[in-house]
Structure of carbonic anhydrase:
Amino acid sequence: MPNIVVCGHSHCGAVQGLMREQNVQTLPLVRHWLSRAGHRTRTDEPWQPQGLGEDPVAVTQQHVLIQLDHLRSYPFIARRLSSGRLRLHAWYYTVETGEVLAAASGRRTFKPL
């Protein structure tokens, strides 16, 4: 497979739970996803990436970028990236409008696809 897309979306329950100090123990599917995604699953304080405040769109986009960083940490992914046989893509889908935003390679900002 030459491409991997990590796509976040508006109203993401996982990110909203992290932002609101919600204990995701009562949300088993969200808890499972977050534990696999490298996030803590019991929050004592909100997860707010530096400088993003409470903007759920910005926080969700940051979550997508963090997941790409996690993927890059796997040796088999890193090898395919360095050989040019694999590309990673960060997307954000707005449910209400159907708009898809993408972060350009090496950038941390999202623009319309």
The domain at 3-112 is CATH 3.40.1050.10 (Beta-carbonic Anhydrase; Chain A). The radius of gyration is 15 Å. The helical segments are 13-19, 28-36, 56-72, 75-83.
